Amino acid sequence: MKKTKILRSVGIVTAAALTLVACGKSGSNSANNENAKTASKFPQAVPVKKAKQGGAIKYAVKTDTPFTGIFSDELSTTTIDSNVAAPGEEELFDTDDNYKITDKGPATMKLDQKAKTITITVKNGVKWSDGKQVTAKDIEYPYEILANKKTKAQRYSSQLEEIVGMKEYHEGKAKTISGIELPDGENGRTVILHFKEMKPGMLYSGNGYFWEYASPYHYLKDVPFEKLQSSDQIRKKPIFFGPFKVKSIVRGQSVTWVPNKYYWRGRPKLDKITAQVISPNSTSQAIKSHKFDIAEVVNDQWDQVKNTSGVNFIAQIPLSYNYLGFKVGKWDAKQGKNVMDSKSKMNNKALRQAMGYAMNVDAVDKRYTSGLSFKIPTLIPAQFGDYYDKTAKGYDYNLKKANELLDKAGYKKKGKWRVQPNGKPLTINFMAKTGSSVQEPTIQNYIQQWNKIGLNVKLVGGRLTEYNSFLDKIQNDDPAVDVFLAGWSLASEPSPASLYGEGAPMNYTRFVTSENTRLLNEIDSPKSFDHSYRLQKFHEWQKYMNEEAYVIPTDNSYKVTAVNKKLTGYSTKPSDNSNGHQLWGEVGFAK
């Protein structure tokens, strides 16, 4: 996504049972390499043709659990909700293909480095689906939602505290945010943001230092903050200023969209769009039977669908990754920061590193995802260019090294299992979410790998965890969870501060160190307007994170989408997207 980091639907298809790994067919790697080459050649958009007016389509939302239906950018935290809301969603700013903000979107932005301000002006005629003009108050209001602790918004982070007065409002010491100026009043169209310090990423979408969405103040103002997330205005009857508006919602299952007659770019081509939930296990059959006009391919099912007629396949490597996270603390809501627990059983670097080296990610990705998933060595994806440290090695499969680390750290074996250095028994509670048909053997494989090095690892609750429950447990620091497997969809500006900072609620491992804080601050400091300086700090941070192993990157995947050949206007290019999603007003049936 362009703007914010969001927890992925981590139905990771990265491995399968150990016994299957051992007896993989010869020649399968060659076929998988060919699949990866094929995906790399797919275009990012369907062929451009003239589109006719009218028609209805269905697109698949791949998930094995109902969507939560939190239709608020400030309060939602999952890609599933974001995908369901896509036809109505639109960010304030458009970007070019390098994610640099342009003046082509619903609003324009002017940065004044000397005055330490950003001026945002909404274009006249940008209207909510109820016909009301998007106003300055609609730009300011999201900051209140994010920063008021009563909303329990997960997306508030210390990065936003670079806006003057934001911290004071967040802590309840001020009733307004002093650094947000509305020069023409609430009903005007201009907002001036005053910053303590200007940051190098501010010209790019996804920088995290200012919000890139609006929220309809006139529609939500009478809802108390503590009731906002559960309100009908958010859950049942949300409004948007994008190309489509909600017609009906079947809770957790589907949303039907019809054109927003007030859409500022003009009437959309389609008459109706239905977003429908589908289980990952049913996706390949749905694509082959043309049940949906647009559906993301499940990578481990690629061989089943690759010869499907009547579709165009488009592909990209998304800004995302999966990771293994170690719980080493808790979120302190009162202080608004993460707090490490020095007594956490996972607060031992050697133990974390050993678990990383014991994961056979590369081999199983090649074998069980049709070659469309691949191991990654660092928390900064290669798509970020030279910020990515190409010398990083990550955690290659090495059981010998894993055992040596544990032996040296004092995790001695007593019978089958190792014990803690203090001699007490060691049981590691591991949580992973439900997913496609290979998810269960995937997770059992990793547990077997950890068992091989003498670690007694058990699934939380004895089984995979349903997605919404998974989210609840990691967000609220359930003490039953020691280790978890998750993933991120990333913002298009590479700063990792909103995911791994001391004041970041989404830092779900809860690790905090002075060195990490120093490096994150340096990455986003004024000195980092010098690209070479920022580059150096990004590389230092990646090296540090790999060494400390509080978060171990595992893999990423090609995202392949099957699109009805009759459709035109569908694209995954950044310049054709808003909120990381297709600008749905351009999609239509070719003449």
Please summarize what this structure is.
It is built from 17 helices and 28 strands. Strands 1, 13, 19, 20, 21 and 22 form a 6-stranded mixed beta sheet that branches.
Give the key terms.
591 residues, 4-stranded mixed β-sheet, 17 helices, 28 strands, single chain, alpha+beta
3D structure, described in words:
The protein is α+β, with helices and mostly antiparallel strands and 591 residues long. Helix content is 24%, strand content 20%. It has 17 helices and 28 strands. The strands form 9 sheets. Strands 1, 13, 19, 20, 21 and 22 form a 6-stranded mixed β-sheet that branches. A 4-stranded mixed β-sheet has the order 3-10-9-8, covered by helices on one side. Strand 14 (329-332) and strand 15 form a beta hairpin. Helix 10 (349-357) runs antiparallel to helix 12 (399-408) and helix 16 runs antiparallel to helix 17 (531-548). The two termini are 31 Å apart.
Oligomer: single chain
- Any idea what the shape is? globular
Poorly predicted runs are 9-28
- Strand content is 15-25%
Secondary-structure content class: alpha+beta
DSSP summary, beta strand count: 28
Measure the end-to-end span: 31 Å
Helix content range: 10-25%
Reported for the largest beta sheet, the result is: 6 strands, mixed
Mean pLDDT: 91
Topology, please?
Elements lengths: L5 E2 L10 H5 L5 H14 L9 E2 L3 E7 L16 H7 L21 E6 L4 E6 L13 H12 L18 H5 L9 E2 L8 E5 L22 H4 L11 H4 L8 E7 L3 E6 L12 E7 L4 H6 L5 E3 L5 H4 L5 E6 L3 E7 L2 E4 L4 E4 L8 H9 L3 H8 L4 E3 L23 H10 L4 E2 L2 E2 L8 E5 L7 H14 L3 E4 L7 H9 L7 E7 L7 H4 L13 H10 L7 H18 L2 E3 L1 E3 L1 E6 L2 E2 L8 E2 L2 E2 L5 E3 L1
Parallel strand pairs: 3-10, 19-20, 19-21
Antiparallel strand pairs: 1-21, 2-28, 4-5, 5-7, 6-7, 8-9, 9-10, 11-24, 12-24, 13-21, 13-22, 14-15, 16-23, 17-18, 25-28, 26-27
